[in-house]
Write a structure and sequence with these properties.
DNA-binding transcriptional LysR family regulator; disordered C terminus; LysR_subst-bd; 10 helices; transcription; single chain; alpha/beta; transcription cis-regulatory region binding; DNA-binding
C-alpha cells in the first residue's frame, strides 16, 4: 500500500472523534503522532484534508472526498485479513466472548451447545461487560467478539453488525417498595426515589442524576440490589425472567416502558477471527429468539 495504514486510520479516527487529541486517546497514541501521520498523508496525497484555522480541525471539501476512499481502503483491507484467516483454516486455541446481560439466556444456551459440538478442542471463555467496557476489552485484544447495547458510533477498528432480534428493558422494584403499590408511576415521581444505575468501569461522563443513585457495573448485580429493595432499576426483561426469584420484582407501569433495545455484535478488525470466531459471529448474526420482543 502506497499510503501508511497508520496514517489512514489516524485520518478516519480524527474525523470520527472531531479532534486530533480525541483520536490520539482512542488510538492510544500521542497527539503529535496523530498530527504527524495526517500531515504525512496530506503530503503524500498533495491535498489539505483539514482546515486548522479554527479551534477544532474541520474537513475541507477535498478531505470529504478523500474520506470515502480511505474508508473503502480500510474496509477492503479488513476483508482481506478475514479472507486470509478463513482460507488458512486456522481454529483458535482459545476464544473469548464478552456478552451483555441484555442477551437472552435462551440464545446463549443454544450457542454454547452448538459451539461444543463444532469446536470441542477450543477453550471458550465468557466475560460479561456493558457499553464502553466491551469496546475496551476488544481494543486490548482481551476478547475477540462481543455483544453490546447498540451505540451511535464506534472506534474505526471496531467492526459491528446490528442483531436481528431485540432485547426488552423495563423498570422494576421489589414488592415491598412504595412504588410497587401504584397502578401508574409518573417519571418525575420516579426520580424522588433511589435509582439503581448501570455505571461501567470506563464510563467517562455518566449521565447526571436527577435523584439519589447507587450504581454497579453489570445488570445482574443491579438485579440483586433491586430484589433487596434498595431502589428502582431499568433491567433487561429476559434477565429478570431467568434470574429473579419468584415474584421478587415488580414491573412498574410507566409511559414509554417497557422499551425495545437494539443489540450490536462487535469485534476488533485488527485481529481477524479464526474458524471458531467466524462461526460464532455468523451464528449470532442469524440467531433469533422467538419470544424476544421485536
Amino acid at each position: 500500500m502506497r499510503y501508511s495504514p497508520e496514517a489512514l486510520n489516524a485520518f478516519v479516527e480524527a474525523v470520527s472523534c472531531g479532534s486530533f487529541s480525541a483520536a490520539a486517546r482512542r488510538l492510544r497514541k500521542s497527539q503529535s503522532t496523530i498530527s504527524t501521520a495526517i500531515s504525512n498523508l496530506e503530503a503524500d496525497l498533495g491535498v489539505t484534508l483539514f482546515d486548522r484555522t479554527s479551534r477544532q480541525p474541520v474537513l475541507t471539501e477535498q478531505g470529504r472526498r478523500v474520506l470515502s476512499y480511505v474508508q473503502a481502503i480500510l474496509t477492503a483491507s479488513d476483508r482481506l485479513d478475514e479472507l486470509a484467516a478463513a482460507l488458512s483454516g486456522t481454529t483458535e486455541a482459545r476464544l473469548t466472548f464478552v456478552l451483555s446481560d441484555t442477551m437472552h439466556p435462551d440464545l446463549l444456551a443454544g450457542l454454547l451447545s452448538e459451539f461444543d459440538k463444532r469446536f470441542p478442542q477450543t477453550e471458550f471463555e465468557c466475560l460479561v461487560g456493558e457499553d464502553v467496557d466491551v469496546i475496551d476489552l476488544l481494543e486490548k485484544g482481551r476478547a475477540q467478539i462481543g455483544l453490546i447495547e447498540a451505540r451511535g458510533r464506534y472506534p474505526t477498528e471496531i467492526g459491528m453488525t446490528r442483531m436481528s432480534s431485540h432485547s426488552k428493558m423495563a423498570i422494576y422494584v421489589a414488592p415491598e417498595h412504595p412504588l410497587a403499590e401504584k397502578t401508574e408511576v409518573e417519571w418525575d415521581e420516579l426520580h424522588t426515589w433511589r435509582e439503581l444505575r448501570l455505571n461501567t468501569y470506563l464510563e467517562e461522563d455518566p449521565q447526571p442524576a436527577r435523584g439519589p443513585v447507587w450504581s454497579a457495573p453489570n445488570y445482574l448485580l443491579l438485579l440483586s440490589m433491586a430484589e433487596q429493595g434498595f431502589g428502582w432499576c431499568a433491567l433487561p426483561c429476559p434477565l429478570v425472567e431467568e434470574f429473579a426469584h419468584s415474584k421478587s420484582l415488580v414491573m412498574l407501569n410507566i409511559i414509554g416502558w417497557p422499551r425495545s433495545v437494539s443489540v450490536d455484535l462487535v469485534w476488533n478488525k485488527k485481529f481477524p477471527l479464526g474458524a471458531a470466531g467466524s462461526w460464532l459471529r455468523d451464528y449470532l448474526q442469524n440467531a433469533a429468539v422467538p419470544h424476544v420482543a421485536k
